Amino acid sequence: MSAANIDVLIVGGGVIGSSIAYHLAQQGRQVLVVERSEVAAPPTASWASAGGVRRQGRHPAEVQLAIESIERWKTLEQELEADLHYHPGGNLLLAESDAEAEQLSKFVSHQLKLGFSDVRLVDRKEALSLVSGLNDRVMAGSYSPNDGQADPVRTTRAFATAAQHLGATYWTGTCTSSFIAHRERIVGVQTDRGEVHTGHVVLAAGTWSDELAATISLRLPLRTRALQMILSTPAQSNVLQPVISAIGRALSLKQLANGAFLLGGGWLGDPSPDRCSFSTRPTSIQGNWATACELLPALEEQLIAHSWCGLEAQSIDDIPFIGSIPGLDGLTLAVGFSGHGFALAPAVGRCVADQINGRPTAELEGLSPARIVTFQPDAVEKFITETTKADFL
Prior knowledge:
Blueprint: E1 8-11, H1 15-26, E2 31-34, H2 45-48, E3 52-53, H3 63-73, H4 76-80, E4 91-95, H5 98-114, E5 120-123, H6 124-130, E6 140-144, E7 148-149, H7 152-165, E8 169-171, E9 176-182, E10 185-191, E11 194-197, E12 200-203, H8 209-214, E13 222-232, E14 243-246, E15 252-255, E16 261-264, E17 268-271, E18 278-279, H9 282-295, E19 304-315, E20 321-325, E21 328-335, H10 345-356, H11 377-385
């Protein structure tokens, strides 16, 4: 495919951009994906994601995407013809005090009102039947049995491969420096392979999206955060089936197929000034490990094998901007997923493709970029420039 007959150009080949490319290609559109590095390469969020596939705790604006995505995940390996290391082991949110147990009871009621009909409140006995070895303080849990986990790198590359099998073209190792605008319409992009003109552009470049938006004087209320992950040495397999977290802890803890534990939960490192790399924080590593060991003492028998960060675009209200910009034709945003976009990728790809093709997408109404103008400029500036000294979000 030459650049002359592109229907849609997508800037960014991460899990969101590649899911959009796959769904557009399914619908017969000629798609070009321009990716600054390789697909799912460090330090992108798709390379470093914790890989959680959950609905619990979703913002109401994400609920319909979460419900659709959970159903898609059940058969996504067959659909993409790839091993995604998908494991539907559930998600268990724990309470460790009377106050937290009361909070958890209200949380479960809210999840049911949102339409997550399988979520249920479990007592300590049932929590221990789901995860043996929890600490003595655990009193209750919110259990979502249809949630789970998958491998983010495998999933991202599977979407990209499937998109290419359907005719999409990927330009990897190619930087996009600016948008090309004509009057109030985006008509293409400038890349280091030259200008590319197209009928529609999707901006899905993760934490680097703000740089491109700035070339058309669009100030996105996003900031870069380096989210930390820790991998332990392998333990006995099947110690931990669900992904676990706790109300009073910054923690996401899961066990991989090889027995290693994977820890996340919003602990921070530091992005480099050029946002091409990161540095970890010893205090974040120590804090994340300590809180995980407190919740699941069996983890103390393991060692930290590796720690790293991925660069994530956090939005000012912690939910993504998905859709078109009022008054600016030819551009769709899919940015600002704030550390929880991976699980939504199947539904986001379908919805964005449908929206570009003029189909109804009520699922995206609460995530419209139209809300950008509702944030006060001084609040946006403070959010973007604020230095995070705490070790977790």
